[in-house]
Amino acid sequence: MACSRTCSRILGLSLGTTALFAAAANTVLLFPNWDVTYLLRGLIGRHAMLGSGLWGGGLMVFTAATLISLMGWRYGCFSKSGPCRSMLTVLLSSGLALLGALICFITSGVALKDGPFCMFDVSSFNQTQAWKYGYPFKDLHTSLLQILLVVIHFISSFLGLFCSLCGK
Predict the structure, then answer these.
(1) Is residue 70 within 8 Å of 41, Cβ to Cβ?
(2) Which residues cross the membrane (predicted)?
(3) Binning pLDDT at 50, 70 and 90, where does residue 92 land?
(4) Is the dihedral of CA 88, 91, 72, 99 positive or negative?
(5) What's the per-residue H, E or C state across 121-148?
(6) Which pLDDT tens digit goes with each residue over 65-84?
């Protein structure tokens, strides 16, 4: 049980850190050059506008990371909870984090496939230059680390649940 608690402490802090980075990265995408006019004029890519780095990889993962870390430290309302309740809470938290990380990962993958939303030259041969906003590289993984950490923690929690039950 102690190994599982130590793992919860470390992975909770690691997940919390990656969640903050995901939210910060999505915020930077919404405000290029820290200028709000791109957002107001609708010149932000649809993948950044979804905000999956804020609510998926950020808020959902951070919430789960906080619960996982609190369980590892046995803090607050978790200080007197039994091992089954603790492990169930950690497993549910890991599921929430996995869902948030997957949403962010899929959105990021699609965004990488579509390429950046930017102004590019659409003029054809022997014509004047014409510029438009769009996805010039439409036919071409940031939250992979979060998914890896969550899967490791999920396996650790799952084993901790069964090992603690077998120990009794």
Answers:
(1) no
(2) 54-76, 88-112, 144-167
(3) confident
(4) negative
(5) ECCCCCCCCCEEEECCCCCCCCCHHHHH
(6) 998 888 777 665 556 666 66
Give me the amino acid identity at 147. Answer: I
Listed residue (53, 162, 139) closest to 102, CA to CA = 53
- Closest residue by Cα to residue 71 from 155, 149, 168, 160: 160
The encoded tokens of residue 160 equal: 């901790």
SS3 66: helix
Residue pLDDT, tens place only, 138-154: 654 475 666 777 778 77
132 beta partners = 120
Q: Answer whether 0.90 is exceeded by the pTM.
A: no
Domains of the chain by residue range: 2-167
